[in-house]
Amino acid sequence: MTRLSTAKRQKILDLYHPVNGEPLSLSEIAGHVHCDRSTVRQVLQQVSSSGQLNYDIRPKGRPRILSKQDLQELQLALDRGSVLDATDAQWEITPHASTRTVCRRLAEIGLPGWVRQRKPLLKKSNLAQRKVWMRDVKDWGVKEWWLVVFSNESQFDLFPTSGRQWCPRRKGEAHYPRNTIPCVPAKGGKVTVWGCITSRGVGHLHQIIGTMDAKMYRDILEESLLGTLYDHHLSPRTIIFQHDNDPKHKSHLVQEWLEKQNILVLPWPSSSPDFNIIENVWAHIKKRLERY
């Protein structure tokens, strides 16, 4: 049967059951609606049997193997964490469907597959320390943070590369020096440095040669940290020094030196999001190195 619009189906009914006047024959109705006589008859039979003007629209083909209830159970299990991924969900909740089907249907309801992000394993003690630290500094303002000297070590490749680098060029200029990236075996070596940053500007950048131990770290602080404070006219008694929980930083040798200098140390919770603003300085340096 030719599928007609709702308006044409309504017109067939109006012509077959007019309010005033005599009903038209099937042939006459077909002429008015511009369809076959058999189509008119089938429309009338369908409306008479179902009582509906519109088509009984049912999905064609085989019904989906996962029902709405199945999808709700899958979503609830994923939100609760009782299943880890689509494979686990298929095994535990919908064994009648394949893993591929589960993946596809989850994507349709806004749960596509993603690569899991790696993060430090957080123990209850780590969470408790972070909570205490946040409570201690939550009311700090610019005045308190202005006193903090942030420090850290970082390593730089002498010939860094971040993968593909695009450049505008003409055809045949691929090997021009300005359109190439210099490459050396093993990236040309690395340089490890210690640095710090204050509210008055950056501090000394100290190159670390060899493997740093507690004694070397103490010597770096004595030379470069105190040198930075001297350059910026800061007193060790008036600053708050920040460094992370590296064993060398927490050694008795370093702790005794800091106490002797009357330097207050900012507690730093382990396995927490990095709040050290010097990381922005390292990122800037690395980006600049990639240009040379």
State the CATH superfamily name of the largest domain: Ribonuclease H-like superfamily/Ribonuclease H
**Which class of secondary structure composition applies to the elements?**
alpha/beta
Radius of gyration: 37 Å
Helical content (DSSP H or I, runs of 4+): 40-55%
The strand line-up of the biggest sheet is 3-2-1-4-5
The global form is elongated
First-to-last CA distance: 73 Å
Number of E-type strands = 5
Q: Which CATH architecture of the largest domain is right? A: 2-Layer Sandwich
CATH fold annotation of the largest domain: Nucleotidyltransferase, domain 5
| H/E series | HHHHHHHHEEEHEHEH
Q: What is the average per-residue confidence, as pLDDT, rounded to a whole number?
A: 87
CATH class of the largest domain: Alpha Beta
Tell me the number of structural domains: 3
Number of helices: 11
| Largest sheet geometry | 5 strands, mixed
Low-confidence stretches: none
How large is the share of residues in beta strands? 5-15%
Describe the protein.
The chain folds into three domains: 6-50; 68-108; 128-289, Nucleotidyltransferase, domain 5, CATH 3.30.420.10. α1 packs antiparallel against α2 (26-33) and α2 (26-33) crosses α3 (37-50). β4 (240-242), α10 (252-260) and β5 (264-265) form a beta-alpha-beta unit. The chain has eleven helices and five strands; from the N terminus they run ααααααααβββαβαβα. The model has no long low-confidence stretch (mean pLDDT 87). The chain starts with 5 loop residues before the first helix and ends with a helix. Helices cover 41% and strands 11% of the residues. The chain is α/β, with parallel strands linked by helices and 292 residues long. The protein has helices at residues 6-16, 26-33, 37-50, 68-80, 86-92, 99-108, 124-137, 142-145, 214-231, 252-260, 278-289, and strands at 148-157, 190-198, 201-208, 240-242, 264-265. It is elongated and about 110 Å long. Strands 3-2-1-4-5 form a five-stranded mixed sheet, sandwiched between helices. InterPro entries: Homeodomain-like_sf (IPR009057), RNaseH_sf (IPR036397), SWIRM (IPR007526), Tc1-like_DDE_dom (IPR038717), Transposase_5 (IPR052338). GO terms for molecular function: nucleic acid binding. It comes from Pycnoporus cinnabarinus. This is SWIRM domain-containing protein. Residues 1-64 form the SWIRM domain.
